[in-house]
Amino acid sequence: MRKAIGLILIWGLLSALSPWSARAQSGEVYAITNARIVPITRPVIERGTIVIRGGKIAAVGQNVSIPAGARVINARGMWVYPGFIDSGTTIGLTEIGQVPATVDVNELGDFNPQLRAITAVHPASEIIPVTRVNGITTVLTTPRGGILSGQAALINLDGWTWEEMLVKAPVGIYFNFPSIVAGRFFDPETFQPRERSFQEARRQRDERLQRVRQLLEDARAYAKAKKAAETSVPEGNATGDGDLHPFLINPVLESLVPVVEGALPLIVAANEERDIKAAVEFAEEQKVKIILSGGLEAPRVAQLLKEKNIPVLFGPVLSLPRREDDPYDSVFTAPKQLFEAGVKFAFLTNDAANVRNLPYHAAMAVAFGLPREEALKALTIYPAEIFGVADRLGSIEVGKIANLVVWDGDPLEIRSQVRHLFINGKPVPLTSKHTQLYERYRNRP
Amino acid sequence: MLSLWGGVLLLGGMISGRLGFGQTPAVYAIKDARIVTVTGPTIPKGTVVFRDGIITAVGENVPIPPDARVIDGSGLTVYPGLFDTQTDMGLPTAPPAVGARPGAWAAPSAPAQPQPPPLPHTQPEWLAARHLQIEGQRFENVRGAGITNVLVIPSRGIFIGQSAVINTAGDTPQRAVVKSPVALHIGFTPVGGGLGGRFPGSLMGVFAHIRQTLLDAQRYGQHWELYQRDPRGLPRPEYTESLEALQPVLRGERPVIFHVNSESEIRRAIHLAEEFHLKFILSGAIEGYKAVDILREKRVPLLVSVNFPERPRDADPEADEPLRILRLRAEAPQNPARLHQAGVKFAFHSGGLSHARDYIRNVARAVRAGLPEDVAVRALTIHAAEILGVAEQLGSIEVGKIANLVITDGNLFDERTRITHLFIDGRPIELRPSEPERPSAPAPPILVTGTWNLTVESPQGTVPVTAHLRQEADRLSGVVTSPFGQSNISEGSVSGDQVRFTLSVEIQGTSVLVTFAGRVEGDRMSGMVTAEGMGSFPFSGTRPRG
Amino acid sequence: MRNIGAFSSVARIWGLVVILLGSGLSFTEPVSAQAPQSEARDEVTLIRGATILTVTRGRIENGSILIRGGKIAAVGRNITAPPGAKVIEATGKYIMPGIIDCHSHIAIDGGVNEGTLAVTSMVRIEDVLNPTDINIYRDLAGGVTTANILHGSANPIGGLNAVIKLRWGKTAREMLFEGAMPGIKFALGENPKRSNFTPPPGTPRRYPATRLGVEYVIREAFTQARNYMRQWEEYERRRKAGENVVPPRRDLKLEPLVEILQGKRLVHAHAYRADEILMLIRLAEEFGFKIATFQHVLEGYKVAREIAAHGAGASTFSDWWAYKVEAYDAIPYNGALMARRGVIVSFNSDSAELARRLNLEAAKAMKYGGLSEDEALALITINPAKQLRIDHRVGSIEVGKDADLVIYSGHPLSVYSIVEKVFIDGQLYFDREADLARRAELQKEKEALKARERSDERRGGPRGRPPENP
């Protein structure tokens, strides 16, 4: 008995003395105190406290009692924002752009709606820590090959495995809307410059679109057959001809069933005015839901987008104007124009290594007229709503996942630094490959 | 519309596009016509007489020789034959053969690196006059538009060669040549290409190449001069045709004609010419009006293209063309007028317009855009002759000059005017109705239907492939046989001279998508075949006749 | 700072008349974004009431700048406008020196690279400058007044550069920065050895294919240059001695290399990895010349000591990384680490897009590495000026320097500030107000031209074959 108690005591002592590991257990409780809190969906709390428990936000407010045993972070003089969301990246699917072995973004073939990006997210990518230390905690990561590229996934930028990182998948199926590309181009197969007439270019585009239509048509038929198979009674068969007609699963069509049923959107990548219009028409015709991604010329089609309630994952804001005669600030002012037209949008970088600069895309939009509050929403609650996870992310509210970033200044200003970072309610160290190399070489004699 | 019918003179039964020389004297008098002499006042009603191809008299009251064939010119106007000061008609369409001069810069020494082959388009010694043909529909059309003289040279290349002024008719090509060489033509086409090609692959490479070649030519001249003065002790200079051909240019005895169109190109050419103190002319100069300051200051003569930029026909109707381009298209017809206002001397050329009629039509557009008509006529006649150095022989109706004359039933620039007579070297030319010419650039539609014997160069060796192709409009179908078996073509198309067809082949149990993409020229096909996931390989082959 | 002196109150009233320059001006140049008028070089302009960030002499609150003859004539607190001067009220604004982009490929016609040979020092960017490239205007609108236009990085030894001022609306020649020391582009690493590029089948691969080969190509070229010098020395000697001799062949490829050896041409070397940076330093030292700048130099922080000892400048990105293997160890602290070791560091764009916001890139050096405000601003002004040896003319707001100035709506290192006006040589080349005012008019002109063309087509105008494309 004494031995047992002794063992228990030693065990308890050891636990109490063990150094606080950076990755604490999710059962831990934290409190961020004395901070200026920007909940996004509610007014700013000048000086308040947030309690994190079990990975979630347990309490937010001015007078919130700090639970016993909570690890307290005094955030006096600092601001707390929700983690930012980048609505279009290839994080986890690429490491070094020029090294094919590290790139999983473009699969062969035009139609791969069944591919699941989440399964290939590389949790040890150096890009992940580099990104989150600048306050981006959640990203949409998408495959990009062919026409129907695959299933996009929303992930948090912390976790031992992709399962732990997963917030939601599929969020949509990435669809590179076919464009009409006429004029001179370089044929990679013959290494010759060639000329493509407008007629030919349009025909090619129409052909590609037709193949998409066909696929959706097949998916509808498949869905119908599937439903029939599920509801049919198992005695005998209706045709009465003695043959078996079991329902055979087709993974490609299977993946499109929720799309044709209107439950899963197509994330349509289109930038040109003509393509955006065509995409909207296509969605109407096919009765599918779409989210526009990129949408650099969306302001030209803002009325239509507003009418059809199509949200836009806009960007990258830091892009050159698409047309020679476009005003020099045309992409910078686009978010303001979308806002004024009542179109809902979020920001994306369409990058991986440079996702950390997401706040500065938003900042440029503010510099050119977008109200700052809207910019912040487009980094947080709007993408959460667009992706159907607003119950879990996008603002500092009780019950939501504790993705919280403590800043020493305005996060949209470059000079501001992140002081503390929580993802899934766990503190995340502010180290990355870059900070490590910095430390190492700053100490070279 | 300048009619290409009109009166046909059948004199002595010797005319059918080919001019015979008989014993019959060639003396003509055109009387009672309006004569636009160009260099003198226009004679409202007068006579021009010419014998054996030379003008012997021009005036109001000119005695008509008794042996002259008289043409009643009442209601008609006589102009000097018109010039087109740059065209590639009569010249071989293939690029000039590779020059003998090796590339100026070899790759750095690496044991495996072979000496690169000689550069194309480095042949200042190429003489257009040597490669000339003067028959064909194009010549008929050009004559039918009243053009009696052209400057022939290909339009693209770097050291393109030396041009010649020719008559647009003659018993033989040699008889048609009026002057050769006229000038050395320099263009700015990067003939090499890309990251794997040959030098020069970029525009700046072209400039470096031109500069280095001229320096080499300078040294060559210097070396020969020293050697001729006193050969003792000196290494003997090599005889290099191309550098030899550049000597008159460096001495300022032969002008250089630069092929340039945009303002930037114009200015660059002028600066380059000044580096080497070259005598030069600019040809093209579509944006000349943007550079009048320097053109006037340096007194640069121009050969101005009237191939005004147009909106491309099969372009994307929704393409957002920049304002810069729209403005250029609106302003281009005003170019000649503005050059004239600035005091810049120029002649005209067709700039590659495919129909000769459009040449005069576009000059008429320039007139409507503000160019005085008489200046337009001068630019088609005497200015061209002066700039090209044949003003003693052509360009105006003067005693002693060659009898190249075009006679119309009205104002040259009036759409309804017809050409009634044309004389070259004092001989009447039959004017046939113009037929659509085979345009030199867009090739006639190719015929792909047939059986093709192809070979594919793969790393495993050459693979024989037989393709039975059937073409319907721009679609291609058929069957392809190879050591891997036989497959139907799933998708195939024909566009211009490009073909493309895709099929599925079973290779080692896997179905592989194979795409052939190539070019057809007559019965020859060549290009690249891509096997999905396995790479791309060159292929070529022929379609046996019969 | 010189004070203009006391003028009468009449003069002061004149001075208070606000004339905003640059609205709706000359239309002879066919460019969609118009250039300003007025060539009068003895114009006098006074900009006043702003916070002046001189970069080299601190900050002046509520300050004024007097411009005369294209130069900064006075900088200070109380400068009165001389009679006839244009006055620009800039209360609440910030003024800094025009931004200098040390690595740009805008305004180049016909290819950024002559990639067919490993040594292409005979080609010149100056021969192919395109003054109508709209990106000139876009970068100007981002505050860039001077740019170092470089050959690409396809070759170990590339072509000769051109330093230009972004004088939008002028000819190519008129854009050249007068008297700027000539330079040349070198490139080390993955790009010149073509490791990320597969040539079409049938095309032989170009030497070199390894970093060792890159070193050798450069070494061989300088050896040839030395031999060339000897040949010419020999020729001169014998000619002066009265001998009958033929001069050696002038080689445009080797002459710039001779200039490098003679210290007359600046080497701007694109390099990434620490080993190749060191390699070039040692090779240069062996041949007796100095590298003027390393470009990109993303691992420069690993050999900052050696770079500083050699005396090379470093022109780098603020935070790009991971796009190539040799960029995988790139860190945004690179600039600060090198600066702390005494290297003169600049931030460049290598991109028409990034060049529009170099002020914000400079701010990143405060975030990553803790540079001060002036140190950060120096990265895009006086430092690149020094690297290009044009710091006697530009790079800071000091009396006697060119009046290349940018007026921002707020502090340039804040994301919320935008460029309002850009002066080059005292001329207003970009004015946001004027740009905004022009847009509707340009749009109308465009519609009118399009409409006229369509109606002409319908009436069946003459249609020629389009001119051949170059």
Output the keywords.
heterotrimer, A: 445 residues, alpha/beta, Urease, subunit C, domain 1, TIM Barrel, eight-stranded mixed β-sheet, 12 helices, C: 470 residues, 2 domains, six-stranded mixed β-sheet, 28% helix, disordered N terminus, disordered C terminus
Summarize the main sheet of chain A: 8 strands, mixed
Low-pLDDT stretches of chain A: 17-26
> At the third CATH level, what is the topology name of the largest domain in chain B?
TIM Barrel
Oligomer category? heterotrimer
Average residue-wise pLDDT of chain B: 87
Shape of chain B: globular
Largest sheet of chain B: 8 strands, mixed
Through-space gap between termini of chain B: 45 Å
Write the CATH homologous superfamily of the largest domain in chain A.
Metal-dependent hydrolases
Total strands of chain A: 18
Which bin fits the share of residues in helices of chain A?
25-40%
Q: Which second-level CATH architecture of the largest domain in chain B applies?
A: Alpha-Beta Barrel
As a percent range, the share of strand residues of chain B is 25-35%
Strand content of chain A: 15-25%
Total helical elements of chain B: 11
**Rg of Cα set of chain A:** 25 Å
What is the CATH architecture annotation of the largest domain in chain A? Alpha-Beta Barrel
The poorly predicted ranges of chain B are 1-18, 97-104, 106-118
- Mind telling me the C-alpha Rg of chain B? 28 Å
Number of domains of chain B: 3
Please give a structural write-up.
The complex is a heterotrimer of chains A (445), B (546) and C (470). Chain A is an alpha/beta fold and 445 residues long. Helix content of chain A is 30%, strand content 23%. In chain A, the strands form 3 sheets. In chain A, strands 1, 2, 3, 4, 5, 16, 17 and 18 form an 8-stranded mixed β-sheet that branches. An 8-stranded mixed β-sheet of chain A has the order 6-7-8-9-12-13-14-15. A two-stranded antiparallel sheet of chain A has the order 10-11. In chain A, helix 9 (358-367) packs antiparallel against helix 10 (372-378). Chain A starts with a helix and ends with a helix. Chain B starts with 26 loop residues before the first strand and ends with a strand. In chain B, strand 2 (43-51) and strand 3 (54-59) form a beta hairpin. Chain C folds into 2 domains: 31-98 and 395-470, Urease, subunit C, domain 1 (Roll); 99-394, Alpha-Beta Barrel (TIM Barrel). Chain C is globular, with a radius of gyration of 25 Å. Chain C starts with 8 loop residues before the first helix and ends in a 12-residue tail after the last helix. Residues 1-38 and 463-470 of chain C have low confidence and may be disordered. The interface between B and C is large, with 87 and 75 residues.
